[in-house]
Amino acid sequence: MVKVKICGITNLDDALAAVECGADALGFVFAPSPRQVTAKVAWEIAERLPPFICRVGVFVNTNLKQVKDTMAYCHLDLVQLHGDEDTGYCAALFPRAIKVFATKNMPSERELRRYKVAAYMLDIDKKTGISETEQERFWQLARNMGRHAPVILAGGLTPSNVGEAIKIARPYAVDVSSGVESEPGKKDRDKLRTFIETAKSIGARQYACSLGNKRDENQQKTTG
Q1: CA angle 82, 56, 24 (to 5 degrees)
Q2: Cis? peptide before 150, omega within 30° of 0
Q3: Domain range spanning residue 116?
Q4: How far apart are CA 19 and CA 63, in angstroms?
Q5: pTM (2 decimals)?
Q6: 120 in helix, strand or coil?
Q7: What CATH number corresponds to the domain at position 102?
Q8: Active-site amino acid positions
Q9: Of 4, 16, 43, 64, which residue is the least packed, with the fewest Cβ within 10 Å?
């Protein structure tokens, strides 16, 4: 089953709308961004969320103590690291860290395995982006990364392409911010609903198919 994270939450109305539509996790950006929030704002929103919603803080090359202090103050469950954080930095936050890799800084498979994290996130380099012809290769790369740890797919996802992305990448979760906005920092309710419904629907079908395949394999082993 595919999880859905809605990132770039800046206000309580958007947070509650995302939860109502079925989001599993919400992201609060503490790095410079049009969607950046203060720790106080994130705390005020987090305090109003229902149980079982994962709260994720987004950081870029932030002092480790500051990250830990922000996590404690805002009651964050996980942190999402978009900078040059090394294996030691990630290990210090294990098991609550997600390490983000972009197309421009993908480590080798050997280096990837050295990161002790809860999950990898694969994102697109915002400065260069990728073409439509490269999109499918990007999703396939995410699928290959899933052999080593759960993979969260991000970058360029929208309600119109998230279904195909999930079919190819088979990620643990998908992450979206601008793809469900009416303007930077403001979520569009219809886009939110369509994105989450599509992701959950395609994910459920894949899960059902995988269970069916396993059942068939077991039957073949039994009858064989």
Answers
A1: 125
A2: no
A3: 3-223
A4: 30
A5: 0.91
A6: strand
A7: 3.20.20.70
A8: 7, 125
A9: 64
